[in-house]
Amino acid sequence: MERLVVNSSLQSYTIYMEEKSRFKIPKLLKKEYSSILIITDTNVAKLYSNDIVSSFPHDKVYVVVVDAGEQTKSLDTFYYLHTKAIEYGLDRESLIIALGGGVIGDLAGFVAATFMRGIDYVQMPTTILAHDSSVGGKVAINHEKGKNLIGSFYPPILVLYDTDTLKTLPAREVRSGFAEIIKEAMLADSDLFDRLMSVSLEGLTLEALNLFIYSGLQIKIKLVEADEKETGNRKFLNLGHTLGHALEAKLGYGVLTHGEAVAIGLLFMIYVSERELGASLPTETLIKWFKKNGYINPLTLDMVDELVEIILHDKKTVNQKIQMILLRNLAGPIIQPLEAKKLKSYLQGFIV
Ligand code: NAD
Ligand code: ZN
Fold it and tell me: Where does Zn(2+) bind (predicted)?
Protein backbone atom coordinates (compact mmCIF):
# COMPACT_ATOMS: atom_id res chain seq x y z
CA MET A 1 0.00 0.00 0.00
CA GLU A 2 1.26 3.47 -0.87
CA ARG A 3 0.50 6.05 1.73
CA LEU A 4 0.76 9.81 1.30
CA VAL A 5 -0.23 12.53 3.75
CA VAL A 6 -1.69 15.89 2.79
CA ASN A 7 -1.13 18.58 5.39
CA SER A 8 -3.94 21.07 5.40
CA SER A 9 -4.73 23.85 7.83
CA LEU A 10 -8.36 22.77 7.74
CA GLN A 11 -7.69 19.07 8.16
CA SER A 12 -4.75 16.81 7.34
CA TYR A 13 -5.61 13.56 5.64
CA THR A 14 -4.10 10.41 4.25
CA ILE A 15 -4.19 9.08 0.72
CA TYR A 16 -4.15 5.28 0.64
CA MET A 17 -3.39 3.84 -2.73
CA GLU A 18 -3.90 0.12 -2.87
CA GLU A 19 -5.53 -2.36 -5.18
CA LYS A 20 -8.76 -3.85 -3.77
CA SER A 21 -8.77 -1.47 -0.81
CA ARG A 22 -12.47 -0.88 -1.48
CA PHE A 23 -13.18 -4.04 0.50
CA LYS A 24 -11.72 -2.73 3.74
CA ILE A 25 -12.93 0.82 4.23
CA PRO A 26 -14.25 0.44 7.81
CA LYS A 27 -10.74 -0.57 8.97
CA LEU A 28 -9.33 2.68 7.60
CA LEU A 29 -11.84 4.95 9.31
CA LYS A 30 -10.80 6.40 12.65
CA LYS A 31 -14.29 6.34 14.16
CA GLU A 32 -17.73 4.78 13.84
CA TYR A 33 -20.31 6.77 11.94
CA SER A 34 -24.03 6.78 12.66
CA SER A 35 -24.81 6.18 8.99
CA ILE A 36 -23.06 6.16 5.64
CA LEU A 37 -24.25 7.68 2.38
CA ILE A 38 -22.44 6.48 -0.73
CA ILE A 39 -22.85 8.89 -3.62
CA THR A 40 -21.97 7.45 -6.99
CA ASP A 41 -22.97 7.54 -10.65
CA THR A 42 -24.79 5.04 -12.86
CA ASN A 43 -21.62 3.54 -14.39
CA VAL A 44 -19.67 3.17 -11.18
CA ALA A 45 -22.67 1.95 -9.16
CA LYS A 46 -23.03 -1.11 -11.40
CA LEU A 47 -19.41 -2.02 -10.94
CA TYR A 48 -18.44 -1.18 -7.38
CA SER A 49 -21.15 0.06 -5.03
CA ASN A 50 -22.03 -3.44 -3.72
CA ASP A 51 -18.41 -4.02 -2.74
CA ILE A 52 -18.44 -0.91 -0.58
CA VAL A 53 -21.84 -1.60 0.97
CA SER A 54 -20.89 -5.14 1.92
CA SER A 55 -17.61 -4.00 3.48
CA PHE A 56 -19.60 -2.35 6.31
CA PRO A 57 -20.89 -4.56 9.11
CA HIS A 58 -24.01 -2.52 9.87
CA ASP A 59 -27.03 -1.79 7.71
CA LYS A 60 -27.20 2.01 7.88
CA VAL A 61 -25.40 2.25 4.58
CA TYR A 62 -27.30 3.94 1.76
CA VAL A 63 -26.45 4.39 -1.88
CA VAL A 64 -27.66 7.25 -4.07
CA VAL A 65 -26.95 6.93 -7.76
CA VAL A 66 -26.91 10.00 -9.99
CA ASP A 67 -26.49 10.29 -13.76
CA ALA A 68 -22.95 9.91 -15.05
CA GLY A 69 -21.35 12.95 -16.66
CA GLU A 70 -20.47 16.59 -16.11
CA GLN A 71 -24.13 17.74 -16.36
CA THR A 72 -24.68 16.09 -13.01
CA LYS A 73 -22.51 18.70 -11.22
CA SER A 74 -25.61 20.88 -11.08
CA LEU A 75 -27.66 22.72 -8.49
CA ASP A 76 -30.57 20.34 -9.17
CA THR A 77 -28.55 17.21 -8.36
CA PHE A 78 -26.96 18.95 -5.39
CA TYR A 79 -30.45 19.69 -3.99
CA TYR A 80 -31.64 16.16 -4.78
CA LEU A 81 -28.72 14.72 -2.81
CA HIS A 82 -29.52 16.92 0.18
CA THR A 83 -33.11 15.69 0.01
CA LYS A 84 -31.90 12.09 0.01
CA ALA A 85 -29.56 12.78 2.93
CA ILE A 86 -32.47 14.20 4.93
CA GLU A 87 -34.80 11.34 3.96
CA TYR A 88 -32.25 8.73 5.04
CA GLY A 89 -31.91 10.52 8.38
CA LEU A 90 -28.25 11.49 8.07
CA ASP A 91 -26.99 13.53 11.00
CA ARG A 92 -23.79 15.32 11.96
CA GLU A 93 -22.14 11.98 12.81
CA SER A 94 -22.82 10.54 9.37
CA LEU A 95 -20.26 9.99 6.64
CA ILE A 96 -20.50 10.57 2.92
CA ILE A 97 -18.45 8.44 0.55
CA ALA A 98 -17.80 9.95 -2.89
CA LEU A 99 -17.37 6.89 -5.09
CA GLY A 100 -16.47 7.80 -8.65
CA GLY A 101 -14.57 10.21 -10.84
CA GLY A 102 -14.03 13.92 -10.41
CA VAL A 103 -17.67 14.73 -11.06
CA ILE A 104 -18.80 12.67 -8.10
CA GLY A 105 -15.88 13.85 -5.96
CA ASP A 106 -16.66 17.52 -6.57
CA LEU A 107 -20.41 17.10 -6.19
CA ALA A 108 -20.50 14.74 -3.18
CA GLY A 109 -17.73 16.78 -1.54
CA PHE A 110 -19.80 19.92 -1.87
CA VAL A 111 -22.85 18.13 -0.44
CA ALA A 112 -20.68 17.03 2.51
CA ALA A 113 -19.39 20.58 2.92
CA THR A 114 -22.90 21.99 3.16
CA PHE A 115 -25.07 19.28 4.73
CA MET A 116 -25.75 20.48 8.29
CA ARG A 117 -22.86 22.91 7.79
CA GLY A 118 -20.42 20.16 6.99
CA ILE A 119 -20.00 16.45 7.72
CA ASP A 120 -17.07 14.08 7.13
CA TYR A 121 -16.52 12.57 3.73
CA VAL A 122 -14.18 10.14 2.03
CA GLN A 123 -12.95 10.52 -1.52
CA MET A 124 -12.86 7.21 -3.39
CA PRO A 125 -11.55 8.13 -6.83
CA THR A 126 -12.23 5.58 -9.57
CA THR A 127 -10.75 7.45 -12.53
CA ILE A 128 -7.18 8.44 -13.33
CA LEU A 129 -8.25 12.04 -13.56
CA ALA A 130 -9.66 11.93 -10.04
CA HIS A 131 -6.15 11.55 -8.57
CA ASP A 132 -6.15 15.29 -9.17
CA SER A 133 -9.69 16.16 -8.10
CA SER A 134 -9.78 14.04 -4.93
CA VAL A 135 -6.80 15.85 -3.39
CA GLY A 136 -6.70 19.48 -2.37
CA GLY A 137 -10.19 19.98 -0.96
CA LYS A 138 -11.74 21.90 -3.84
CA VAL A 139 -15.39 20.91 -4.15
CA ALA A 140 -17.92 22.50 -6.45
CA ILE A 141 -20.86 22.37 -8.79
CA ASN A 142 -21.24 24.22 -12.08
CA HIS A 143 -23.34 27.28 -12.89
CA GLU A 144 -24.68 27.46 -16.42
CA LYS A 145 -22.40 30.49 -16.88
CA GLY A 146 -19.27 28.62 -15.97
CA LYS A 147 -17.62 25.62 -14.42
CA ASN A 148 -17.12 25.19 -10.67
CA LEU A 149 -18.50 28.65 -9.90
CA ILE A 150 -20.38 27.44 -6.81
CA GLY A 151 -18.17 25.67 -4.33
CA SER A 152 -15.82 25.72 -1.41
CA PHE A 153 -12.59 24.38 0.05
CA TYR A 154 -13.48 21.33 2.11
CA PRO A 155 -10.90 18.55 2.49
CA PRO A 156 -11.95 14.91 2.91
CA ILE A 157 -11.02 12.91 6.02
CA LEU A 158 -9.45 10.26 3.79
CA VAL A 159 -8.71 9.52 0.16
CA LEU A 160 -8.96 5.84 -0.67
CA TYR A 161 -7.65 5.08 -4.12
CA ASP A 162 -8.37 1.52 -5.13
CA THR A 163 -6.44 1.47 -8.40
CA ASP A 164 -7.94 -1.93 -9.23
CA THR A 165 -11.06 0.01 -10.27
CA LEU A 166 -9.09 1.68 -13.07
CA LYS A 167 -9.11 -1.62 -14.99
CA THR A 168 -12.69 -0.94 -16.11
CA LEU A 169 -12.05 2.61 -17.35
CA PRO A 170 -12.94 3.20 -21.01
CA ALA A 171 -9.99 4.22 -23.23
CA ARG A 172 -11.33 7.74 -23.55
CA GLU A 173 -11.26 8.23 -19.78
CA VAL A 174 -7.69 6.92 -19.67
CA ARG A 175 -6.75 9.63 -22.19
CA SER A 176 -8.61 12.19 -20.13
CA GLY A 177 -6.76 11.34 -16.93
CA PHE A 178 -3.40 11.35 -18.63
CA ALA A 179 -3.87 14.92 -19.74
CA GLU A 180 -3.84 16.00 -16.06
CA ILE A 181 -0.71 13.95 -15.34
CA ILE A 182 0.97 15.57 -18.35
CA LYS A 183 -0.08 18.94 -16.97
CA GLU A 184 1.51 18.13 -13.61
CA ALA A 185 4.69 16.93 -15.29
CA MET A 186 4.94 20.10 -17.39
CA LEU A 187 4.53 22.18 -14.25
CA ALA A 188 7.04 20.52 -12.03
CA ASP A 189 8.86 17.45 -13.32
CA SER A 190 10.53 17.31 -16.72
CA ASP A 191 11.75 13.71 -16.13
CA LEU A 192 8.18 12.62 -15.60
CA PHE A 193 7.25 14.44 -18.79
CA ASP A 194 9.92 12.49 -20.73
CA ARG A 195 8.73 9.20 -19.24
CA LEU A 196 5.14 10.01 -20.21
CA MET A 197 6.12 10.86 -23.76
CA SER A 198 7.89 7.51 -24.08
CA VAL A 199 4.81 5.35 -23.40
CA SER A 200 1.76 4.49 -25.41
CA LEU A 201 -1.58 4.40 -23.62
CA GLU A 202 -2.59 1.20 -25.35
CA GLY A 203 -1.29 -1.76 -23.43
CA LEU A 204 -0.04 0.29 -20.49
CA THR A 205 0.28 -1.95 -17.42
CA LEU A 206 -1.48 -1.14 -14.17
CA GLU A 207 1.92 -1.08 -12.52
CA ALA A 208 3.18 1.65 -14.86
CA LEU A 209 -0.08 3.54 -14.47
CA ASN A 210 0.22 3.42 -10.66
CA LEU A 211 3.68 4.96 -10.86
CA PHE A 212 2.48 7.81 -13.06
CA ILE A 213 -0.46 8.50 -10.78
CA TYR A 214 1.80 8.42 -7.74
CA SER A 215 4.15 10.98 -9.32
CA GLY A 216 1.19 13.17 -10.25
CA LEU A 217 -0.15 12.99 -6.71
CA GLN A 218 3.18 14.10 -5.27
CA ILE A 219 3.22 17.19 -7.48
CA LYS A 220 -0.38 18.04 -6.66
CA ILE A 221 0.19 17.60 -2.90
CA LYS A 222 3.24 19.84 -2.91
CA LEU A 223 1.37 22.65 -4.63
CA VAL A 224 -1.79 22.49 -2.52
CA GLU A 225 0.10 22.23 0.74
CA ALA A 226 2.05 25.37 -0.05
CA ASP A 227 -1.05 27.32 -1.05
CA GLU A 228 -4.27 25.77 0.14
CA LYS A 229 -6.66 28.54 -0.80
CA GLU A 230 -5.12 29.22 -4.20
CA THR A 231 -3.89 32.72 -3.59
CA GLY A 232 -0.50 32.02 -5.17
CA ASN A 233 1.28 29.06 -6.73
CA ARG A 234 -1.63 26.64 -6.54
CA LYS A 235 -2.94 28.57 -9.51
CA PHE A 236 -0.26 26.83 -11.56
CA LEU A 237 -2.47 23.74 -11.48
CA ASN A 238 -4.75 25.62 -13.85
CA LEU A 239 -2.18 25.16 -16.60
CA GLY A 240 -4.11 24.41 -19.79
CA HIS A 241 -7.43 25.13 -18.10
CA THR A 242 -8.06 28.67 -19.39
CA LEU A 243 -9.02 27.36 -22.79
CA GLY A 244 -9.87 23.89 -21.46
CA HIS A 245 -12.73 25.07 -19.23
CA ALA A 246 -14.02 27.47 -21.88
CA LEU A 247 -14.09 24.70 -24.46
CA GLU A 248 -16.07 22.44 -22.15
CA ALA A 249 -18.58 25.22 -21.52
CA LYS A 250 -18.81 26.20 -25.20
CA LEU A 251 -19.28 22.71 -26.60
CA GLY A 252 -21.64 21.66 -23.83
CA TYR A 253 -20.52 19.43 -21.00
CA GLY A 254 -19.95 15.88 -22.15
CA VAL A 255 -18.86 16.54 -25.74
CA LEU A 256 -15.22 16.57 -24.74
CA THR A 257 -14.00 14.91 -21.55
CA HIS A 258 -12.36 17.28 -19.08
CA GLY A 259 -8.92 15.91 -19.93
CA GLU A 260 -9.47 16.12 -23.69
CA ALA A 261 -10.31 19.79 -23.24
CA VAL A 262 -7.24 20.28 -21.03
CA ALA A 263 -5.04 18.60 -23.66
CA ILE A 264 -6.10 21.21 -26.22
CA GLY A 265 -5.64 23.88 -23.55
CA LEU A 266 -2.07 22.68 -22.95
CA LEU A 267 -1.23 23.00 -26.64
CA PHE A 268 -2.67 26.50 -26.66
CA MET A 269 -0.72 27.38 -23.51
CA ILE A 270 2.47 26.28 -25.30
CA TYR A 271 1.56 28.36 -28.36
CA VAL A 272 1.12 31.46 -26.19
CA SER A 273 4.24 30.75 -24.05
CA GLU A 274 6.37 30.56 -27.17
CA ARG A 275 5.09 33.88 -28.49
CA GLU A 276 4.68 35.79 -25.24
CA LEU A 277 7.82 34.60 -23.46
CA GLY A 278 9.99 33.21 -26.23
CA ALA A 279 9.83 29.86 -24.45
CA SER A 280 11.31 26.81 -26.06
CA LEU A 281 9.10 23.82 -25.30
CA PRO A 282 8.75 20.24 -26.60
CA THR A 283 5.80 21.21 -28.77
CA GLU A 284 6.25 18.68 -31.55
CA THR A 285 6.75 15.81 -29.11
CA LEU A 286 3.52 16.62 -27.34
CA ILE A 287 1.48 17.10 -30.52
CA LYS A 288 2.77 13.77 -31.83
CA TRP A 289 1.98 12.03 -28.55
CA PHE A 290 -1.58 13.39 -28.47
CA LYS A 291 -2.15 12.30 -32.07
CA LYS A 292 -0.67 8.85 -31.54
CA ASN A 293 -2.89 8.29 -28.53
CA GLY A 294 -6.14 9.36 -30.16
CA TYR A 295 -6.81 12.82 -28.65
CA ILE A 296 -9.25 14.93 -30.67
CA ASN A 297 -9.36 18.67 -31.41
CA PRO A 298 -12.71 20.09 -32.53
CA LEU A 299 -11.60 23.78 -32.35
CA THR A 300 -12.71 25.96 -35.27
CA LEU A 301 -12.26 29.66 -35.99
CA ASP A 302 -15.95 30.48 -35.59
CA MET A 303 -15.71 29.55 -31.90
CA VAL A 304 -13.19 32.25 -31.01
CA ASP A 305 -15.50 35.12 -29.98
CA GLU A 306 -17.60 32.98 -27.73
CA LEU A 307 -14.57 31.30 -26.16
CA VAL A 308 -13.04 34.68 -25.30
CA GLU A 309 -16.36 35.75 -23.80
CA ILE A 310 -16.51 32.64 -21.62
CA ILE A 311 -12.88 33.08 -20.53
CA LEU A 312 -13.63 36.66 -19.46
CA HIS A 313 -16.28 35.35 -17.06
CA ASP A 314 -13.97 32.75 -15.62
CA LYS A 315 -12.72 32.81 -12.02
CA LYS A 316 -9.23 33.34 -13.40
CA THR A 317 -10.01 36.76 -14.86
CA VAL A 318 -9.05 39.79 -12.76
CA ASN A 319 -9.78 43.39 -13.87
CA GLN A 320 -10.61 42.21 -17.38
CA LYS A 321 -7.16 40.63 -17.66
CA ILE A 322 -6.95 36.91 -18.09
CA GLN A 323 -4.50 35.41 -15.64
CA MET A 324 -3.05 32.76 -17.88
CA ILE A 325 -0.54 30.21 -16.64
CA LEU A 326 2.36 29.98 -19.06
CA LEU A 327 5.69 28.15 -19.11
CA ARG A 328 9.06 29.86 -19.44
CA ASN A 329 10.43 26.35 -19.84
CA LEU A 330 9.40 22.85 -18.75
CA ALA A 331 8.75 22.96 -14.99
CA GLY A 332 8.99 26.75 -15.05
CA PRO A 333 5.43 28.13 -14.74
CA ILE A 334 4.46 31.78 -14.35
CA ILE A 335 1.20 33.69 -14.19
CA GLN A 336 0.88 36.09 -17.11
CA PRO A 337 -1.93 38.67 -17.32
CA LEU A 338 -3.27 38.89 -20.89
CA GLU A 339 -5.73 41.33 -22.38
CA ALA A 340 -8.76 39.88 -24.10
CA LYS A 341 -7.72 41.34 -27.44
CA LYS A 342 -4.38 39.61 -27.30
CA LEU A 343 -5.91 36.34 -26.21
CA LYS A 344 -8.28 36.53 -29.14
CA SER A 345 -5.52 37.01 -31.67
CA TYR A 346 -3.49 34.16 -30.13
CA LEU A 347 -6.54 31.92 -30.34
CA GLN A 348 -7.05 32.80 -34.00
CA GLY A 349 -3.40 32.12 -34.75
CA PHE A 350 -3.49 28.83 -32.83
CA ILE A 351 -6.52 27.51 -34.67
CA VAL A 352 -5.36 28.42 -38.17
P1 NAD B 1 -16.27 11.67 -14.36
O2 NAD B 1 -16.43 11.65 -12.91
O3 NAD B 1 -17.40 12.11 -15.20
O4 NAD B 1 -15.83 10.21 -14.84
C5 NAD B 1 -15.66 9.95 -16.20
C6 NAD B 1 -16.53 8.79 -16.69
O7 NAD B 1 -15.97 7.56 -16.27
C8 NAD B 1 -17.96 8.80 -16.18
O9 NAD B 1 -18.81 8.38 -17.21
C10 NAD B 1 -17.94 7.75 -15.08
O11 NAD B 1 -19.20 7.17 -14.88
C12 NAD B 1 -16.95 6.77 -15.61
N13 NAD B 1 -16.23 5.99 -14.60
C14 NAD B 1 -15.70 6.47 -13.45
N15 NAD B 1 -14.96 5.52 -12.87
C16 NAD B 1 -15.06 4.40 -13.63
C17 NAD B 1 -14.50 3.10 -13.56
N18 NAD B 1 -13.67 2.76 -12.58
N19 NAD B 1 -14.82 2.22 -14.53
C20 NAD B 1 -15.62 2.59 -15.57
N21 NAD B 1 -16.15 3.80 -15.71
C22 NAD B 1 -15.86 4.71 -14.76
O23 NAD B 1 -15.03 12.58 -14.80
P24 NAD B 1 -13.51 12.72 -14.34
O25 NAD B 1 -12.77 12.86 -15.59
O26 NAD B 1 -13.09 11.69 -13.37
O27 NAD B 1 -13.53 14.12 -13.55
C28 NAD B 1 -13.80 15.32 -14.20
C29 NAD B 1 -14.27 16.33 -13.20
O30 NAD B 1 -13.27 16.56 -12.23
C31 NAD B 1 -14.60 17.68 -13.82
O32 NAD B 1 -15.86 18.09 -13.37
C33 NAD B 1 -13.51 18.59 -13.28
O34 NAD B 1 -13.95 19.91 -13.13
C35 NAD B 1 -13.22 17.95 -11.96
N36 NAD B 1 -11.90 18.28 -11.41
C37 NAD B 1 -11.85 18.79 -10.17
C38 NAD B 1 -10.64 19.08 -9.59
C39 NAD B 1 -10.57 19.58 -8.17
O40 NAD B 1 -9.51 20.00 -7.74
N41 NAD B 1 -11.65 19.54 -7.44
C42 NAD B 1 -9.46 18.87 -10.31
C43 NAD B 1 -9.53 18.36 -11.60
C44 NAD B 1 -10.77 18.05 -12.14
ZN1 ZN C 1 -8.46 19.75 -14.53
Answer: 180, 241, 258
CA–CA distance, 54 with 24 (Å, rounded to integer): 10
With b meaning 16 or more CB within 10 Å and e meaning fewer, what string describes 22-33?
beebeeebeeeb
> What percent of the chain stands above pLDDT 70?
99
Active site (annotated) includes residue 241: yes
Q: Which of 131, 175, 183, 220 is catalytic?
A: 220
Q: Which CATH class is domain 2-167?
A: alpha beta
CA of 95 to the centre of ligand 2 (A): 26
Q: Kindly report the pTM of this predicted structure.
A: 0.95
Please check if 241 is assigned to a binding site: yes
For this structure, is 138 an active site residue? yes
Q: Is 84 a catalytic residue?
A: no
pLDDT for 279 beyond 90 = yes
**From 30, 31, 117, 341, active-site residue:** 117
CA distance 161 to 128: 10
pLDDT tens for each residue of 170-179: 999 999 999 9
pLDDT in tens, 185-219: 999 999 999 999 999 999 899 999 999 999 999 99
Cβ-based neighbour number of residue 236 at 10 Å? 21
Domain residue spans of the chain: 2-167, 171-351
Structure confidence by residue, pLDDT tens digits, 113-129: 999 999 999 999 999 99
What is the architecture, at CATH level 2, of domain 171-351?
A: Up-down Bundle (1.20)
